[in-house]
């Protein structure tokens, strides 16, 4: 219909309104929607008033027509697979949607939440949304819900994660709310009951088995519905989400990137979810595009669990282990900024070039990691760690990176900035710079060491020869690295592990994150843990992990050999 419904005022419906409502309620959704176009504003007001009187809500006519609700009441359009999801919830108690990246899954899940909350009388139905983390509930799902309710003029008051409406007595009742539960807190999902219950699980791939099992008890009853939607997990074979999708009682609607409009060629209508002030654009522009797919396959490799999950929407199985699972990297990238008094935002320190809103701790140690492009190829990258905060500071590609003096000059500039920051934060340790010491990097390290002796800086310069032995060994360790490069990757694996030595805030671009989860984890004939070489990564079409290794170098503390850095005259 794509025209706004009239406001529903408190009124008694006339005979015509009651008759129209009765006839429409008995018709199929398709017949209803054709008839809607013949109603003028006065007739609509009568029908909605009759629906309020007879069914307890003006939106009762859309109880079996969520597609019509989104289009007629919300005035929005959807693409084909989103319509499939909406239609499936009418006749199926559980619908699971393993989805690729950028398919609009949270968008459509929020529309389901709004539909299920208003098509039944307040107090007789409840919509519950959940996700693995509170931030997903508060900052992704519920902003969608608030926006939709406000724009469509729907009744009630929507808070951060709760929606209340007046019931027929005039008392406010909760019609929808959102929560997140710790992995082992099964009590968090117990005791949820309502005559009609809609349970929406966003980012379902991250739901743990204990919470998932507890949900099974909630999802009982003839009038209970559940929508489980999210990316398949990249590193949890046999996850609760996968088990649920294998349940014959669950309708599964997978969405691959190749199903989405910009890759399938499906034509979409104009987007009506964005503010009216936004330039006119098609719905498809909000979805995944070919460039993202090509970049992701190049950075991870076609056989990577990340690609299987987020491109093909498949549950990865039996693949070779990755040095660092993608979900660990994502967790570090999504970690919240600390709000304790000991932290301050970089941009508030008054230092040139420090414009980041990320927060750093007073007294934190500062370290730089430098991956030098070999012979000007690949990328020259500098990463910086300030305590638990890791950022990318510089990345370039080109022949100018083949000149060690030019490269050393860029590193010196970052050393100078790091020393200013260390002084401002009151750090007690000197800035420490770890440089990939192979080829050109050895000369860059030599120049920086010479400039240190000349008084241009006071940082510690450490050339890391990736092929060298680690200089230390732990016979009891499960993963025993053979070289410093292997040790460097395994050290980062330990830092990012959910059960690791600590947490990191990784503030790096998508390519850096992709590179961190690209190399495979192998074991050689001596029983040592080996990280897949750059040469073998290139053979399978994966780009060199230069950005990732700069980040790793920033955090890595190698055993320093006695070999002196050669000084270039």
TrEMBL record:
This is Uncharacterized protein. It comes from the Bacteria. Gene3D superfamilies: 3.30.420.240, P-loop containing nucleotide triphosphate hydrolases. It comes from Kitasatospora cineracea. InterPro entries: P-loop_NTPase.
């Amino acid at each position: 219909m794509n025209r706004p419904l009239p406001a529903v005022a408190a009124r008694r419906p006339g005979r015509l309104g009651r008759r129209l409502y009765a006839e429409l309620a008995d018709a199929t959704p398709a017949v209803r929607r054709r008839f809607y176009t013949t109603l003028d504003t006065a007739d609509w007001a009568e029908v909605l008033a009759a629906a309020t009187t007879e069914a307890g809500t003006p939106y009762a006519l859309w109880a079996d027509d969520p597609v019509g609700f989104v289009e007629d009441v919300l005035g929005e359009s959807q693409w084909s697979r989103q319509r499939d999801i909406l239609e499936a919830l009418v006749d199926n108690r559980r619908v699971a949607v393993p989805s690729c990246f950028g398919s609009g899954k949270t968008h459509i899940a929020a529309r389901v939440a709004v539909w299920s909350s208003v098509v039944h009388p307040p107090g007789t139905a409840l919509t519950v949304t959940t996700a693995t983390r509170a931030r997903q509930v508060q900052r992704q799902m519920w902003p969608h819900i608030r926006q939709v309710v406000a724009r469509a003029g729907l009744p009630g008051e929507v808070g951060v994660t709760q929606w209340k409406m007046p019931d027929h007595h005039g008392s406010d009742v909760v019609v929808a709310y959102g929560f997140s539960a710790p992995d082992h807190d099964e009590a968090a999902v117990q005791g949820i009951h309502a005559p009609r219950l809609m349970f929406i699980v966003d980012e379902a791939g991250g739901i743990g088995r204990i919470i998932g099992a507890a949900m099974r008890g909630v999802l009982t009853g003839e009038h209970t519905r559940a929508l489980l939607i999210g990316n398949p997990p990249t590193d949890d074979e046999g996850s609760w989400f996968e088990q649920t999708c294998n349940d014959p009682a669950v309708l599964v609607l997978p969405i691959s990137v190749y199903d989405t409009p910009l890759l399938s060629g499906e034509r979409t209508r104009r987007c009506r979810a964005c503010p009216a002030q936004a330039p006119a654009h098609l719905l498809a522009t909000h979805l995944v595009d070919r460039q993202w797919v090509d970049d992701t396959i190049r950075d991870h490799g076609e056989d990577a669990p990340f690609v299987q999950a987020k491109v093909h929407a498949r549950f990865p199985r039996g693949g070779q282990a990755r040095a660092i699972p993608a979900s660990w990297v994502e967790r570090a990238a999504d970690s919240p900024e600390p709000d304790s008094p000991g932290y301050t935002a970089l941009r508030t320190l008054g230092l040139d070039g420090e414009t980041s809103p990320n927060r750093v701790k007073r007294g934190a140690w500062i370290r730089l990691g430098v991956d030098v492009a070999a012979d000007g190829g690949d990328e020259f990258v500098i990463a910086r760690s300030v305590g638990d905060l890791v950022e990318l500071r510089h990345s370039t590609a080109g022949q100018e990176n083949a000149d060690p003096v030019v490269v050393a000059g860029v590193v010196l500039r970052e050393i100078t900035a790091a020393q200013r920051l260390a002084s401002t934060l009151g750090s007690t340790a000197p800035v420490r710079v770890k440089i990939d010491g192979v080829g050109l990097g050895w000369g860059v390290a030599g120049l920086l060491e010479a400039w240190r002796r000349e008084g241009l800086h006071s940082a510690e310069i450490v050339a890391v020869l990736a092929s060298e032995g680690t200089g230390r060994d732990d016979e009891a360790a499960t993963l025993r690295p053979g070289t410093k490069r292997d040790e460097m990757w395994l050290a980062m694996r330990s830092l990012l592990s959910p059960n690791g030595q600590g947490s990191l805030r990784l503030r790096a671009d998508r390519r850096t994150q992709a590179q961190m989860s690209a190399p495979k984890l192998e074991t050689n004939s001596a029983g040592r843990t080996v990280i897949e070489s750059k040469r073998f990564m290139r053979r399978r079409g994966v780009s060199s992990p230069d950005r990732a290794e700069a980040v790793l170098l920033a955090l890595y503390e190698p055993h320093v050999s006695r070999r002196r850095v050669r000084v270039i005259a």
